[in-house]
Amino acid sequence: MKIILASASPRRREILENLGIEFEIKISNADETCDIKNPCELVCELSRRKAQATADMLKESRTLSDDTLIIGSDSVVYCGGKILGKPENRQNAFEMLTSLSGSTHSVISGLCLIYGDKVITDFEKTDVFFDEISDKEINDYVASGECDDKAGAYAIQGKASKWIKGINGCYFNVVGLPVHLLYKMAKENGIEVF
Q1: DSSP for 16-58?
Q2: pTM beyond 0.85, yes or no
Q3: What is the pLDDT of residues 77-126, one digit of tens each?
Q4: Which of 66, 74, 90, 155 could form a disulfide with 47 if both were Cys (CB 3.0 to 4.6 A apart)?
Q5: Any catalytic annotation for residue 117?
Q6: Among 66, 67, 74, 122, which one carries the catalytic annotation?
Q7: 149 Ramachandran zone, left/alpha/beta (phi>0; psi -120 to 50)
Q8: What is the domain partition of the chain in residue ranges?
Q9: CATH code for 2-188?
Q10: If phi over 0 gives left and psi between -120 and 50 gives alpha, with beta otherwise, what is residue 57?
């Protein structure tokens, strides 16, 4: 089986590598503009678009076989009724982290598997409990650059880990790829990934 990760995320790549899964990366140019307000529906739609755009690209180049698995994923942070994606700039990152300070939020990731004529989509939700963070701590963190290109403007596996009191759900979902959901979806559909 050929496995394709339809993502440029270094975190998703690292998770699959650590699992010992052999795969290739084919970055999709999927349109991510979307008016969906429900975070679970949003990540499912965007992960499906990413996987489908990669499948279409492989079909065009005639390199998509029936034994190719395409994995698409998308993550958002949901806090106080607002969907937080990746910060647009450092000020936006500061505002996101301020909203997360002293509260509980959810990291929601969509996962789409395309294999043969199957298109399977689902999502994972993990609750994250943040400690209070001072403005100075937030400014120092934002200045470090670790917040860039991360949903919710933080990396649980990095310097932000010191503020996280606990989680309820899949840790790897917060990092960027819900491993247990991938395992479950593949197993239920007879796809040998692991």
Answers
A1: HHHTT---EE------------SHHHHHHHHHHHHHHHHHHHH
A2: yes
A3: 999 999 998 999 999 999 999 999 999 999 999 999 999 999 999 999 99
A4: 74
A5: no
A6: 74
A7: left
A8: 2-188
A9: 3.90.950.10
A10: alpha
